[in-house]
């Protein structure tokens, strides 16, 4: 059963890494895609979106490290739970206040899903000890 848990963790964090690194690439090379979905017309927002790439890419690398060595980098998953939950809450407030479309809210739904899976991974690993 331990090997399936290990495989599950590797797959979970490899997929999360790909999600973040893909998002980072989109933010860097095509920030106008995101900005149009958010209905932002300010030209300075392009720089902000591109600078956000550093954080999104760093998280992607962190998730790849967890996929590589779940024991050594396990605590990064706690930071992922916090980060992805905060991202979701920020977007949820914007959605509820009418500042965000349902389509633009989709990445926040994906992130809260990842946050819940990360939490489940961490709690299951804690019970194992």
Explain this structure to me?
With 129 residues, this protein is an all-alpha fold. The protein contains six helices and no strands. The protein has helices at residues 2-29, 31-37, 44-51, 53-68, 75-96, 102-128. Helix 1 packs antiparallel against helix 4. It is elongated, with a radius of gyration of 16 Å. It starts with a helix and ends with a helix.
Largest sheet: none
Derived from helix and strand composition plus strand pairing, the structural class reads mainly alpha
Measured as a percent range, the helix fraction is over 70%
- Radius of gyration, in Å, reads 16 Å
Name the average pLDDT.
91
Looking at the chains present, what oligomeric state does this protein adopt?
single chain
Shape: elongated
Instruction: Tally the helices.
Output: 6
Strand content: under 5%
- Distance from N terminus to C terminus (CA atoms, Å) equals 14 Å
Q: Which stretches are poorly predicted, pLDDT < 50 over at least 5 residues?
A: none
Series of H and E elements: HHHHHH
User: Could you give the count of β-strands?
Assistant: 0
């Amino acid at each position: 059963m331990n090997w399936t848990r290990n495989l599950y963790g590797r797959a979970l964090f490899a997929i999360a890494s790909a999600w973040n690194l893909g998002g980072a690439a989109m933010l860097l090379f095509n920030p106008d895609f995101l900005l149009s979905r958010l209905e932002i017309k300010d030209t300075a927002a392009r720089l902000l979106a591109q600078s956000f790439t550093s954080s999104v890419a760093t998280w992607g690398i962190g998730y790849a490290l967890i996929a590589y060595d779940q024991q050594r980098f396990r605590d990064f998953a706690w930071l992922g739970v916090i980060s992805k939950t905060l991202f979701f809450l920020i977007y949820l407030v914007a959605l509820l206040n009418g500042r965000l479309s349902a389509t633009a809210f989709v990445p926040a739904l994906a992130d809260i899903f990842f946050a819940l899976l990360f939490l489940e991974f961490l709690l299951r690993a804690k019970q194992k000890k």
